[in-house]
Amino acid sequence: MAGAYESAPGTLACSNNEWDEKMKVSPQKTGILLITPSVFLICALLVYPVLYGVWLSFFKKHSFFPDQRFVGFANYLYLMKDPEFWMSLWYGTYYSVSTIVLQIALGVIAALILNEAFRGRNFVRGVVLFPYMIPTVVAVILWKWLLNNQFGLVNYLLLAIGIVKDPLSWMGKDHIMASLIIISVWEFFPFVVLSVLARLQTIPPVLYEAAKVDGASPWGRFIHVTLPQLRNVLFVVILLRSIWMFTKFDTVWLLTQGGGAEKYIRTLPVFAYMRTFMYYQAGLGSTLAVIMFGILIASTTIYFKMFRGEEGI
Amino acid sequence: MNPKKRYQVIIGSVCLFLLIVGGTSFAAKKVINVWHTETNPLSRKAIANIVERFEKLHPDIKVEAEALAWGDLEGKIMAALAAGSPPELSHGQPITCAALQAKGLLLPLDDVVKHIGEDNIWDQIKKVGKYGDHYFGLVHAAGTSLLIYRKDLANKKGLKNPKTWKDLLHNAKELTMDTNGDGKTDIYGVTIPGDNLFINILLGELTKANGGILFDDQNRPQFTSKCMIEILEFTKELTNYLPPGWEGHGYRETFANMYGQKASMMYQGYGRGASLIEQYAPKDMTNTDYFDVWVKPHGPSGTKPAAQVDEEPWMMFKGCKHPKEAIEFLKFFYQDDNYLEYIQTVPIHFFPVTKSLRKSKGYQETPMIKKWKGWLDVQEHYLDNDLVKPTLVIDWKDMTTKPYLMEILGSGILKDMVMEVTKENVPPRDATRKAQKRAEELIKDKGYAKW
Fold first, then answer.
1. What domains can you pick out in chain A, each with its CATH number?
2. Would you give the DSSP letter of residue A62?
3. Which of A239, B146, B211, B242 could be a cystine partner for B302, CB 3.0 to 4.6 Å?
């Protein structure tokens, strides 16, 4: 071949040009080629599992064995009539709304404090993040010990201070939801602190100075300067935390692991898990997952419609 | 070649060599995966020692033994089977063994039984894993549930072994005490775990002790029966003497209630409690003068006591890679010297399945066995008189005719029913109707309904 190139250089040059012309790819095609791997990954890792979940929800299927039968919308109709489903929906909504409200309130207060200058601030900022860094399983075990009604530290302190006369059964029917909310808020409020604190540090001091000149009180400065500046970050934080708390499984499940009081914190993700891995009804489990997905899509859409335009997010 | 490049080539060659040699030596070994439920450090160590000795004898076999919590096991087995990569051996609930055997997912362990000698195995044990002429499960050790009580307190009150549930309620009332006169209860009469597994165990036991059944021959649940109503009424009354928040107490917390002197009786106790008492109770109380066992009472419609037997069988799975090697490992495990080491890790809970070990000097002279003999005598009484069955099994034929018990256990239907009656004050009849409906739906869904 080398000899051929050498004996006919003109031919070679002509061939190269043709080759270049042939290989010339339009920018559109290049773009498509470049995004193909990403599209493939998204389809494989996101679209396929979601569609498979939706498809499964139309089947009566054993979780582990290949027994399956098409049942159409029977799973959906069954759940609509199932009181357990409605109870789980209620528990899930109650849990997510309460924890979000408390996380936001506590997170914003903590961020405001940590934004002030005081001795040891950096240390406290680090410590505040601890709950978010601790693995959930460790956090839950720790709290179960603290809240133990016979030997726990929390009851000991409450009795010592005189707030209660008898030890509270934190893991019992009456207080299990409160325990779950306390643990979840403790575990996840640092996320709010982190996000809000980052935003607080970028608010121009001149805004506060102007407000002071106008005679605004500290409360007035918070309402008229800080809060409007935090709106965008709170919009995103509330959205993310709502999705995460509504689908939260590990903390809820680990707290009772099927224990007696589990019935009183059986949120939708736990109910879906139980249907799939304890009743071995993968079809119903998928139906529950699809319903949860639908609820989240609907509520997110409403949330965006209510606040997006106003905030320009 | 410059020095830098030379070093790179040398390091690369060494890595390649190690990879090839390591890979070859690993590939040459046959790996058998063994899942068991004995998570306590002593039992894990005993299994590790047995594995080490076995591997020395069989250099071509590697045993990967993993201790799993009860709650994790069933799901993990199912997931492994579905993925087509089951372990060679695993413990499991007897009803799991029954369900998997019915689906044709287990391999027989006849060679192991033959090696041990069928006559050398207790008859009660054989009932758990024998299906037709083959053994698809072989119990690793048996331990029955026990009614543990504070003997010192009972003696002070002049209380005797309760014969009926009414007697038990009387004892519970007497043993619920305010010891320092401040008007508050310091020691509660009874402690029971509130978690799903133990509520199912409890209801199975109480049904047997009350002469009832859970499912009829058509597989229809019998939750609305007079027997179940009586059980729920009894349980409701019993909760008057349970520590507040009992429904949140796990199995280990109920032991803590006993050795921590917060409760006088433990209805769902087990022999392993003796080890915990020795470990955590005040030293002068770690004996049967303080913690002893009574034979369990029977219900108003029953005549005989009943208890549950914790006897998880080893199972070998169809589709596992090295069944022959797994059989060899089990034969080695049940050899008297190895088996004794395992049994001695929880001696009051692990009843040996082989008669030879039971009679052996090594076993009989185990210090804990001598010390807590009364606890073993009650277990032996239950086992010899067929007063114990696995969880939710009322009659031995349930093992083969009711393969849906595993799903009933997992569903939490029975636990919810108990919680509704005891915690939500739902009348027993209403709670049983709801549970009946849920169980019927589940059995129909699984395709076992014959009514």
1. 2-56 (no CATH), 74-311 (1.10.3720.10)
2. B
3. B211
